[in-house]
Design a protein that fits this description.
There is one protein chain. The protein is of the alpha+beta class. It has two domains: about 160 residues, Gcn5-related N-acetyltransferase (GNAT) (Aminopeptidase, 3-Layer(aba) Sandwich); about 120 residues, Roll (2,3-Dihydroxybiphenyl 1,2-Dioxygenase, domain 1), CATH 3.10.180.10. Helix content is about 20%, strand content about 30%. Strands 1-2-3-4-5 form a five-stranded antiparallel β-sheet, sandwiched between helices. A hairpin with a 2-residue loop joins strand 3 and strand 4. The chain is elongated and about 75 Å long. It starts with 5 loop residues before the first strand and ends in a 13-residue tail after the last strand. It binds coenzyme A. Pfam families: Acetyltransf_3, Glyoxalase_4.
């Protein structure tokens, strides 16, 4: 299973391979590296065993173990993999930089790259970290990366802070505004669908209404400035809006019930794979001609666009 190479201003993070064993053992040869761990990885056999466990990783795509290289030299390791300590195997981040390279911001730089890969690249809803209560340097790294301290517990045999990093709103949709010919029809179809997906009414005025989910809201407005009678999804402009749904069963349920709320199925003969074999989605169109796609991301996400019309 291959991991992407992550590049930063000073570092290259690439997938750990067997040929890195000796370099990694060397990084951990300073007993200071193991100060906050239950095992002493300055013992080459212990460090080599740790490399074995890392090489044996078989988990979700895009997660795993990297070496941290600076100018071609392995100076540390980093990981993002399902936690063995936290419930549900949530993704857990870890970072280790050799003592000879400490104090230059390199762990922060490497950990930032892995965190961004997890939250922005893989679209994980959260990334977790467990940091020994007395590991001040690591707590500083995590704090700098925006990790929130949500408590403490006994993990890896000792008291650890439990930290979580959540996706930032930067660069994400703030709101989406749809101009609709018939506000009542839009409320009936969009209001029902968004309500089913957890959106809540946010704003209301004579010509419009909006619903919000988290930091994003969607507006439907029958604007007096509208310059055409209706929406046509095959014309330039918005073709469709695609929304995440938590499970395939939920997509099935919404697709079935949508007919009672102003939505007709599109590409019904290919349901649920009109977007491709690996893509599970319902395509619906309301009376005003707006198309919505309800997508359940279970298993690896396909590359590229998922529908042509
Ligand atoms: C913890 C570790 C990753 C830090 O690596 P690093 O490259 O030195 O980290 P950075 O330089 O990015 O940041 C460390 C920060 O902690 C500060 N720091 C270091 N030792 C400290 C201490 N004892 N008390 C308080 N702050 C300390 C540094 O000054 C630096 O802050 P600054 O940039 O504001 O000066 C590295 O020492 C290490 O690998 N340790 C062993 C393994 C480990 O504990 N990993 C973390 C597992 S959760």
């Amino acid at each position: 299973m291959s991991l992407p190479t992550l590049t930063t201003a000073r570092l290259k993070l690439r997938q750990l391979v067997e040929a890195d064993r000796e370099s990694v053992v060397k990084v951990f040869s300073d007993p200071e590296m193991s100060r906050f761990f239950a095992a002493d990885f300055s013992d080459p056999a212990a460090a080599s065993g740790m490399v074995d466990r890392r090489l044996a990783y078989r988990g979700p795509a895009g997660q795993g173990h990297w070496v941290i290289e600076r100018d071609g030299e392995v100076i540390g390791v980093a990981h993002l993999r399902p936690s063995s300590e936290l419930p549900g195997g949530v993704p857990e981040l870890g970072y280790y930089v050799g003592a000879a390279h400490a104090g230059q911001g390199l762990a922060s730089e490497a950990a930032r790259a892995v965190l961004d890969h997890g939250l922005d690249g893989l679209g994980l809803p959260a990334v977790w970290a467990l940091v020994h209560e007395n590991n001040a340097a690591s707590r500083k790294v995590a704090g700098r990366l925006g990790f929130l301290d949500v408590g403490s517990g006994i993990h890896y045999g000792d008291l650890h802070r439990v930290l979580v990093a959540l996706p930032a709103t930067h660069g994400r949709p703030h709101h989406i505004e749809l101009w609709v010919p018939d506000l009542a029809e839009a409320e009936r179809s969009w209001g029902w669908l968004l309500g089913e997906l957890g959106w809540r009414e946010f704003q209301r005025w004579p010509d419009g209404v909006s619903w919000r989910l988290g930091a994003t809201y969607l507006v439907v407005e029958a604007s007096p400035a509208m310059s055409a009678a209706g929406h046509e999804r095959t014309r330039p402009g918005l073709n469709h809006l695609a929304l995440h749904v938590d499970t395939r069963a939920h997509v099935d349920d919404l697709a079935t019930r949508a007919a009672d709320h102003g939505w007709q199925p599109l590409f019904a003969d290919m349901y649920p794979h009109a977007g491709g074999d690996a893509h599970y989605a319902a395509y619906l169109e309301n009376d005003a001609g707006f198309e919505v796609e309800l997508v359940a991301l279970e298993g690896p996400a396909p590359a590229g666009p998922t529908t042509g019309s």
